[in-house]
């Protein structure tokens, strides 16, 4: 079997690591992959990003299954394109991907299907938005409607900050169209968690829960990043929370997917907020999370290829996902300066046997691994307890070095 994975981050390396364990898989193409995926035995990186070219490659090379990592190709309609050509691909259709591609669409969907979420209004006129905000309690949350590479959400503490944000999003058009429409949302206090789930459109099965660590500094301080580490399962996702999640979020989402006739054979990522009033849905993503995947997949006992095939064949109702007992922890090592400006091209030591490491911003130059991005790689471990998993992940990271290596020292401290 030949598999193609679209994307270049730690999430994609984790998917590769997992699917390569299936003995039927003889070859995995990563498009474009990274320096660490290139080191994996069954993998070949291919430098293609154009969707039509990817489909052509899949056809010509008899790729049996394509798995899409990031949201951009999904929102651009890669699944529809591949299906038109008779190619097997795992992910939502372009229309279904709007659950991530448009926050206004996602919020309308949540409202229509009684999914527990923060109150909101949608605006495409700055003055009307400001008038509404003037009557709100602060903080308020302003969200760009479209994709904004994780930078489209601002928690505004004052009217002045809200005005600046709207100017930036709607008038200066910071996100090239993605912020022309905005969502103004009620601010929710609480603890965040991530739950991934797989659906074939008929059945939805949640994975074990996870926790991202978004801020750059210890103690959840400083600006947001693409994620500085993750653990699974999330200790805050108690039985009560999971019950509420199932009733108030998961099942109504499946109902919505069915009633809206969304063609969704893929992953739904639920970003949730837990507080004393219940469990709220903050956002949908339509793909695996990064860095949640790097913690969740090491605990998955079931075969990921079989699971994905079951979803594509609409046979998830017969499937039980098996999980290993215990916890996992993944700690991201970043380049000095990230998420601001940083330099790249530094030699990386200690990774060559890529064991318990997933690469991200890494390139391979004449056999030498070098830094090539903000988040460079992550070290991970899966053990019986969270303390042990965390200790082992940090021990693995201690073996790795490059100029300016930076990581949080409190991943897994709950
Ligand atoms: P989103 O892309 O909608 O998940 O937003 C990104 C981040 O902004 C979330 O992970 C939260 O930390 C924060 N956030 C989003 N919506 C809210 C809200 N209604 N209340 C509080 N924080 C929020
Ligand atoms: N970890 C958040 C995301 O993947 O969007």
From TrEMBL:
Keyword Hydrolase: no
Cofactor(s) required for function per UniProt: Mn(2+); Mg(2+)
EC number of this enzyme: 6.3.4.13
The keyword Ligase is assigned to this record: yes
GO biological process terms on file: 'de novo' IMP biosynthetic process; purine nucleobase biosynthetic process
Alphabetic keyword roster: ATP-binding, Ligase, Manganese, Metal-binding, Nucleotide-binding, Purine biosynthesis
Substrates-to-products reaction catalysed: 5-phospho-beta-D-ribosylamine + glycine + ATP = N(1)-(5-phospho-beta-D-ribosyl)glycinamide + ADP + phosphate + H(+)
Pathway where it operates: Purine metabolism; IMP biosynthesis via de novo pathway; N(1)-(5-phospho-D-ribosyl)glycinamide from 5-phospho-alpha-D-ribose 1-diphosphate: step 2/2
GO MF, one annotated term: ATP binding
EC top class, as a word: ligase
Occurrences of domain ATP-grasp (ranges): 107-313
Short name of any one Pfam family annotated for the protein: GARS_A
Family: Belongs to the GARS family.
Protein name per Swiss-Prot or TrEMBL: Phosphoribosylamine--glycine ligase
């Amino acid at each position: 079997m030949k598999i193609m994975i679209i994307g270049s981050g730690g999430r994609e390396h984790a998917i590769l690591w997992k699917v390569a364990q299936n003995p039927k898989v003889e070859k995995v193409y990563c498009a474009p992959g990274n320096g660490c995926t290139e080191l994996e035995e069954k993998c070949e990186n291919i430098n293609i990003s154009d969707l039509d070219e990817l489909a052509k490659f899949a056809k010509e090379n008899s790729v049996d299954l394509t798995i899409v990592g990031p949201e951009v190709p999904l929102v651009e309609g890669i699944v529809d394109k591949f299906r038109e050509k008779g190619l097997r691909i795992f992910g939502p259709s372009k229309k279904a991907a709007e659950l991530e591609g448009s926050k206004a669409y996602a919020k309308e969907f949540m409202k229509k299907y009684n999914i527990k979420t923060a109150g909101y209004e949608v605006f495409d006129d700055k003055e009307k938005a400001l008038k509404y905000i003037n009557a709100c309690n602060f903080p308020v949350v302003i969200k760009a409607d479209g994709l904004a590479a994780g930078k489209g959400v601002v928690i505004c503490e004052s009217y002045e900050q809200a005005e600046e944000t709207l100017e930036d999003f709607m008038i200066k058009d910071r996100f090239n169209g993605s912020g022309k429409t905005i969502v103004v949302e009620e601010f929710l206090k609480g603890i965040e968690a991530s739950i991934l789930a797989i659906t074939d459109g008929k059945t939805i099965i949640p994975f074990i829960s996870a926790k991202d660590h978004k801020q750059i500094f210890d103690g959840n301080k400083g600006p947001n990043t693409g994620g500085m580490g993750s653990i699974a399962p999330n200790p805050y996702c108690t039985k009560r929370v999971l019950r509420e999640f199932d009733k108030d979020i998961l099942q109504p989402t499946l109902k919505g997917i069915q009633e809206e006739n969304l063609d969704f054979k893929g992953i739904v990522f639920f970003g949730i907020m837990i507080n004393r009033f219940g469990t709220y849905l903050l956002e949908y993503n339509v793909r695996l999370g990064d860095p949640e995947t790097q913690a969740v997949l090491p605990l998955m006992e079931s075969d990921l290829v079989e699971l994905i095939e079951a979803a594509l064949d609409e046979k998830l109702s017969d499937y039980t996902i098996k999980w290993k007992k215990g916890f996992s922890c993944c700690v991201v090592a970043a380049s000095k300066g990230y998420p601001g400006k940083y330099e790249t091209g530094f030699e990386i030591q200690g990774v060559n046997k890529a064991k318990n490491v997933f690469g991200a911003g890494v390139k391979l130059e004449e056999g030498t691994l070098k830094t090539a991005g903000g988040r460079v790689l992550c070290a991970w471990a899966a053990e019986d307890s969270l303390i042990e998993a965390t200790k082992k992940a940090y021990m693995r990271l201690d073996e790795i070095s490059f100029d300016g290596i930076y990581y949080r020292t409190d991943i897994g401290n709950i």
